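B., you asked whether I could sanity-check this one before it goes into the benchmark set. Here's the sequence:
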Amino acid sequence: MADYQGKKVVIIGLGLTGLSCVDFFMARGVTPRVMDTRISPPGLDKLPESVERHLGDLNQDWLLAADLIVASPGMALATPALSAAADAGVEIVGDVELFCREAQAPIVAITGSNGKSTVTTLVGEMAKAAGWAVGVGGNIGLPALSLLRQECQLYVLELSSFQLETTFSLHAAAATILNVTEDHMDRYPFGLQQYRAAKLRVYENAEVCVVNADDALTMPVRGADKRCISFGADVGDYHLNRQLGETWLRVRGEKILNTREMKLTGRHNYTNALAALALADAVNIPRASSLKALTTFTGLAHRFQLAWEHNGVRWINDSKATNVGSTEAALNGLQVDGTLHLLLGGDGKSADFSPAGAVSAGR
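And here's what the prediction gave me:
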């Protein structure tokens, strides 16, 4: 565990994550400074009066005087004020790095462009079905540092590329990159490979790497090695098999579960289930418990969720599909006899929309 006594700490960004960082340091006898580019950030009313705060922009003097900066995932490291602090030798980390320095239980780390929340939640449900004390959080639900308050046998973390950029001490028992498609290109000016490089950090020091056999970008830079287990739609250690009109989850050729027994639907969700099962197996969650969770898990709100059905027309809410890759996966997972109407909106994040157009053409 790290010793922060006597350190001058600056936290950038409030909200749930920022407050969890404040609580973390206060519990260790260190009073940090807090800054936020917003005038009235969420959580401001919960900030202890003893904590100095600077609002509306970044305080360069505070940053240069700090020993440690804990940056919000939403703050790009390329921001000039942060770059200047880094050049001056100030250590810059994120809340997940603080968590990794303290965690005493195995960690399952999950990243990818799409499916992270579903797989993270599902692995957590598998552990709960086995009666394990499990902490689930990170980029979903509770901030990572809040999980330290629980007595856990296992941590299951959803991690974004932004969080991984400032994480250096992760030693996952099992880690996965579910897929890599264009996302946050406004944050990665050098393109997809720069974004992928941030994702690949999840494999560093991992005991088991769960890779997507259908997506070469999820492979470690040096290629698959003995640490790697694969999942995929048609190939991989964990794969799908269609026989006599039915789809099965299979592990190394053995039929494990008929997808008719699952409440999740869609081919992309079946591959999510395979990834979750591979991760659960890697950390020795009993297979029977994992299969039980697969048959009871109903999915998450706004993720390929049947909202209404009337007169043979189905309305599917997939509003959490916030990039082209996730929309493409959902479309590929649909079996439609009639006409498909696709409603899109929101921030394109500098992405190329042509793949989704190609999938939906003629449907």
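One thing to flag: The chain is about 30% helix and 20% strand. Otherwise nothing jumped out at me.
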